């Protein structure tokens, strides 16, 4: 009897010492705008850090746009880190949470909470020097869903009155952004759209001589270390899906905000850590102006919407119509009096 009690006690102690293994792993999904093996190597130390902080295993997976859309739609992942335009799309379509934190990128001593888009062509391409020169040219881009790989560059073209590339003038390469560079250098495309920093990163990896390319519409951004052809927008947000409860989301946010810049996890990911969520209103405005998903359909407008938006004008028009009606009645009455007279 004593042996049975001892065995049961040992079993209880063993089970209580392994609580983490009784829960399923947390699925951490990252958008891969560079090659997937490189993306996994970059973010794996952060996944290990989160596993230690949350007391549960964390499994990392890198996706392209369609793969990440499908994973979120099918409720297969818990944590999502992607660009801000894609994040807004996932929020509207699949009820992704509001951003918990915003990524802080580290580059050359700079802590960056924003990024831009680069428009480039071959250095010896003499016919393309301004945004206007891109009209009618064949443009390479990873996807029309890519914020820094297409949308913010397209927004700059639209603001400058330059027609957006369509049909045969738009070459979709899919991720990684390296393919856009290859398309331009091999002559498949006249110019390319990539996220700011991609050209510099590839040069640092020995994959590109920067003298072979030139940047179009380069912005004067003294505090920004990359060549950018566009204004800059907030860095990537991180959020959670409906599978994550409020307590876990809160612990996740605390863990990410507590990440030290000099930790192995931060250095491997090329980040300073995470900060409180940025304001993504500007990103949403770009998507609305371009009429791209999730704002690619005309909104349903009710009378209440019209009243709330234009009530001052509606009241003014109503008063004006009432005055016109009163004047018309007065003229009719005066006419009858004159006729009777």
- Contiguous low-pLDDT stretches (5 residues minimum) are 14-21
Cα(first) to Cα(last) distance is: 125 Å
Classified in CATH, the superfamily of the largest domain is Periplasmic binding protein-like II
Structural class: alpha/beta
Number of strands: 14
The overall average pLDDT, rounded, is 89
What is the overall silhouette?
Answer: globular
- Written as H for each helix and E for each strand, in order along the chain, the element string is HEHEHEHEEEEEHEHEHEEEHHEHH
Number of helices: 11
* Overall radius of gyration: 28 Å
CATH class of the largest domain: Alpha Beta
Q: What is the number of domains?
A: 3
Helix content: 40-55%
Tell me what portion of residues adopts beta-strand conformation.
Answer: 15-25%
Strand count, sense and barrel status of the largest sheet are: 7 strands, mixed
Known CATH architecture of the largest domain: 3-Layer(aba) Sandwich
Might you state the CATH topology name of the largest domain?
D-Maltodextrin-Binding Protein, domain 2
Characterise the protein shown here.
Helix 3 (65-73) runs parallel beside helix 4 and helix 5 crosses helix 10 (281-290). Strand 1 (26-31), helix 2 (36-54) and strand 2 form a beta-alpha-beta unit. The chain has 3 domains: 2-113 and 235-290, Periplasmic binding protein-like II (D-Maltodextrin-Binding Protein, domain 2, 3-Layer(aba) Sandwich), CATH 3.40.190; 115-216, Periplasmic binding protein-like II (D-Maltodextrin-Binding Protein, domain 2, 3-Layer(aba) Sandwich); 311-341. The chain has 341 residues and is an alpha/beta fold. The chain has 11 helices and 14 strands.
